[in-house]
Amino acid sequence: MTRQATASSEPVAPAEAAAADATRPIVRARGLAKQYGDFTALDHVDFDVAPGRILGVIGANGAGKTTLLNAILGLIPHEGELTVFGRDPARERAALMRDVCFIADVATLPKWMTAAQVFDYVEGVHPGFDRTVALDFLSRTSVPLSKKIKKLSKGMTTQLHLSIVMAIDARLLVLDEPTLGLDILFRKQFYRSLLEEYFDDSRTIIVTTHQVEEIEHILTDVMFIRDGRIVLEAETEALETRFAQVSVDACHADALRDLGPLYESGSLGRKTFVFDGADRAALQRFAPPQRMSLADIFVATMQDAPKGDSQ
Ligand SMILES: Nc1ncnc2c1ncn2[C@@H]1O[C@H](COP(=O)(O)OP(=O)(O)OP(=O)(O)O)[C@@H](O)[C@H]1O
């Protein structure tokens, strides 16, 4: 608001404008909702995605992840406010796609084309595609340019797909389950290349996957979705200080329950309690608080989150 007021009354210094651009959200949603008939797939969610971040959108099957991405990409109409690079994706999709690259599933390249033909095609439809970058990436692999995609192994297809991602100069990359069906080596390679060769401060990535543990290390932010609602939104770094779990003999269970755990589980006379924002010193009196993986935090949060009344 301040920025708009300034712009209308006095000129904004270039440095100031650049600083404002660097912090302005790439994606801004307020009351974003999506109904399929009487089913609520997205239930009035609010969120911002800042530039230079890697956001993991995590949720169980049917949580609403793809619906959220499709709204961002302008592929479905929505209710509520949604802007991507300041534009309404549903109305200004063509202009938006100059800045956005979307990959659904790496295995979905057209099987009847050769790699060279795929490059021809992408060159024709995406103004940000740089063929020389793609060729350079591919030259470091064993993927032949002249072979039809149906004759490539899945790993080769991944590398071909990656070469396209790397060569599209997009400011926002949207990945929906990008490594579905790939073995662990190729999944790891995909994310390593993404981080080391593609990502920099000028780009933003939004990614969904069920293989949370494999992308944990690349994410700067996470959003957990359940029943079309956001149940947790946080910087990944903050999770470590925020969440902790302690395992104790069952005889201490009541005392730990008094500290307000998010979730508890137990077996064989031991109880494990998960805490969100608890006083570490208070937990330490019972047992050393342990660091939790993103997958563990996800499970605990999902157990705790009340089921939406939207179904
Ligand atoms: N075109 C549609 N018509 C009706 N319901 C739909 C449609 N698309 C999605 N849904 C429903 O909306 C809900 C959210 O679907 P969505 O694909 O966004 O989930 P998701 O989190 O991506 O799931 P998954 O991890 O299984 O891909 C699901 O219950 C789904 O059945």
Automatic annotation (TrEMBL):
GO molecular function annotation: ATP binding; ATP hydrolysis activity
Superkingdom of the organism of origin: Bacteria
Keyword Nucleus listed: no
Domain ABC transporter: 27-252
Keyword terms: ATP-binding, Nucleotide-binding, Transport
Gene3D superfamilies: P-loop containing nucleotide triphosphate hydrolases (3.40.50.300)
UniProt-listed CDD domains: ABC_DR_subfamily_A
UniProt keyword Signal present: no
Signal peptide boundaries: none
PANTHER family reported in the protein's UniProt record: ABC TRANSPORTER ATP-BINDING PROTEIN ALBC-RELATED (PTHR42939:SF1)
Listed name of the protein: ABC-2 type transport system ATP-binding protein
Organism annotation: Rhodothalassium salexigens DSM 2132
